[in-house]
Amino acid sequence: MGSGTDPGGALRFAVLGPVRAWRGGQPVPAGPPQQRALLGALLLRGGRTATAQELVDALWGEEPPPTALAALRSYAFRLRKALGADALATVDGGYLLRPGDDFDLVRAEQHCSAAEKARAAADLSSARDELRSALALFDGEPLAGLPGPYAETQRVRLLEWRLQITETCLDLDLQAGCHAEAVSELTVLSAEHPLRERLRALLMLALYRGGRQAEALGVFADTRRLLGDELGVDPGTELTDLHQRILEADPALLPPPVPQAESAAEPVRPAQLPATVADFTGRAAFVRELGDRLAAASAEGGVMAVSAVAGIGGVGKTTLAVHVAHAVAGAFPDGQLYVDLQGTGPRPTEPETVLASFLRSLGVTDATIPESLADRAALYRSTLAGRRVLALLDNAHDAAQIRHLLPGTPGCAALITSRARMVDLAGAHLVDLDVMSPEEALQLFTRIVGEERVAGERQAALDVVAACGFLPLAIRIAASRLATRRTWTVAFLARKLSDERRRLDELKAGDLAVKATFELGYGQLTPQQARAFRLLALADGPDISLEAGAAVLDMDVYDAEELLEALVDISLIESAGPARYRYHDLLRLYARDCAERHEGEDARCAALSRLLDFYLASAARTYELENPGDRVLDHLSPVGRPGLVFASREEGLDWLFTEAPSLLAAVQQAAGDGCEGPMRRAVDLLFTAQDLMESGVYARQFEQSTRALVTTASACGEELVEARARVLLGQLLGLAGHFADADREAQRALVLSVACDDPLTCSYASILRGMIAAYGRRFEEAAGHYQHALDGFRADANRHGEAAALSNLSRVRNELGDVPAAVAAAEEALSIYRGLRAGFRLGNGLYALGIALTAAHREEEAYACLTEALPIFREARQQLWEGMTLFRMAEVQLASRGHRQAASLAEQSLNLLRETGGTWRRAHALTVLGRSLDGMGQPDRARACWRDALAEFTALGAPEAESVRQLLGGPAAPAAVAV
Question: How many CA atoms lie within 13 A of 843 on its CB side?
Answer without folding.
Answer: 23
